[in-house]
């Protein structure tokens, strides 16, 4: 697939936001830094929500063109499953994170959900789901990166150039 420059920008901004979320989530969990890493986590999480909405709209309104490199059917199926999984997982991750953050004493959210709900037994299950989804997301991101490495170094094809802003081969 070949993607528009806007979709490429969304891809890399999403990757950066997820990396920032992972780092700030770990910093909060393990007290790696002094300060309010959970505040940063909430702010970046809301940016990620906006990015995901924009990215999904861009994907639906401007589907990518088929690339010049033809891949085996099994590669196409794996890529489709991983990409759909990534989108579903990212959406589930930000939704569960948003509900969970709403239960904090002073959430830095634009419109937090009901705090009583966020702190209820259901809210606790949503928080647990948020923690579990991070492992699924990590697995899917790892598969995605493994695919990139395969195409770049094993197949030595131009698949990676479809998602880089420079050296694009049309």
Textual characterization of the structure:
- The protein has helices spanning 5-30, 37-61, 73-102, 115-118, 121-155.
- The mean pLDDT is 89.
- It has 170 residues and is mainly α.
- 71% of the residues lie in helices and 0% in strands.
Summarize model confidence as the mean pLDDT: 89
Q: Level of helix content?
A: over 70%
For the terminal residues, how far apart are their CA atoms?
10 Å
Could you state the order of secondary-structure elements as H and E? Answer: HHHHH
Quaternary state of the chains: single chain
Stretches where pLDDT is under 50 for at least 5 consecutive residues are none
What would you report as the Rg, rounded to the nearest angstrom? 18 Å
- Global geometry: elongated
Tally of DSSP helical segments: 5
Topology readout:
Layout: H1 5-30, H2 37-61, H3 73-102, H4 115-118, H5 121-155
Helix pairs in contact: 1-2, 2-3, 3-5
Quick summary:
The protein is 71% helix and 0% strand. It has 170 residues and is mostly helical.
Please tag this protein with its features.
single chain; 170 residues; mainly alpha; 5 helices
């Amino acid at each position: 697939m070949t993607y528009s420059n806007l979709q490429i920008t969304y891809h890399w901004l999403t990757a950066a936001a997820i990396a920032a979320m992972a780092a700030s989530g770990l910093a909060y969990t393990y007290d790696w830094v002094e300060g309010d890493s959970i505040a940063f986590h909430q702010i970046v999480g809301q940016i990620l929500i906006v990015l995901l909405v924009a990215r999904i709209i861009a994907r639906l309104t401007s589907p990518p063109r088929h690339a010049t490199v033809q891949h085996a059917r099994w590669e196409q199926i794996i890529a489709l499953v991983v990409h759909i999984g990534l989108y579903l997982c990212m959406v589930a991750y930000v939704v569960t994170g948003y509900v969970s953050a709403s239960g904090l004493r002073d959430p830095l959210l634009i419109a937090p959900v009901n705090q009583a709900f966020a702190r209820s037994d259901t809210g606790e299950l949503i928080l647990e789901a948020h923690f579990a989804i991070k492992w699924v997301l990590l697995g899917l991101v790892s598969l995605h990166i493994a695919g990139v490495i395969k195409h770049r170094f094993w197949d030595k094809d131009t698949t990676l150039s479809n998602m880089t802003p420079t050296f694009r081969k049309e």
